[in-house]
Amino acid sequence: MVSLHAEQRVLVPLFKSRWTRQAFVHWPYEPQAVQALLPEGLTADTHGGTAWVSLTPFVMEAVRPACVPPTPFAFPETNLRTYVHLPDGREGLWFLSLEVTAPVMLAARVIGVPYHTGDLAVREHGPAIRYTGTRRGGYPSYDLAVRPGAPLVPGDLDTWLTSRWRAFSRSGRALWQTPVQHEPWPLWSAAMESVDQTLTTSAGLPAPSGPPVVHFSPGVRRVRLGMPRLLKRP
What we know:
The chain is mainly β. It has one domain (15-194, 217-222): Acetoacetate decarboxylase-like (Beta Barrel). The protein has helices at 31-35, 156-162, 199-202; strands at residues 15-29, 43-44, 51-65, 74-85, 91-100, 115-125, 128-135, 141-151, 166-171, 174-181, 188-197, 213-225, 229-232. Strands 1, 2, 3, 4, 5, 6, 7, 8, 9, 10, 11, 12 and 13 form a 13-stranded mixed beta sheet that branches. The longest helix is centred in the C-terminal third of the chain and has 7 residues, at 156-162. The mean pLDDT is 95.
């Protein structure tokens, strides 16, 4: 079962950071459309028979190795992700793409995390927050404006879409699991004022057809990213 609280403690983190000004835009998809993009060993997770794909732009702050004090190093990041589980039922995230301005994050490609560099920005836009980005080379891109609402008490679907405590990646035939720990997301209601994006089609998905579920969070401040663990050898 997906839990509001971290499923495991990351006692020896590889990195620490803060994730702030995070928007969540979740689109429903047919499970077979998502499953076609997953590696062997992972199954599309569903809620009420529906798979979901989420666009999650935010700002990474105070990113540093665990042994280093907080720094002013900060940059925007935007993820396109879906929800998966292992044969034993362990649930997590599968990233279809990650857009970032900081080239240092490309080091995660060694375990198959699909980072791409580009031009990204997060700006106040009246009562909304506007997230924009273009991958190096000019495609894909996104332009999203989300208007935060009021704090909410998460329901079942809200928790299912936001509270995941591991991510999977693949390098060659090797499948990796990376744990994460942080406080529960403080979630607010939100409205999507506008969206123009090509990340989903670039990832191999059909264009979103259903209405999205939208959340906003001011962020979590005690993120502990654990050491990746090999689940399947080539």
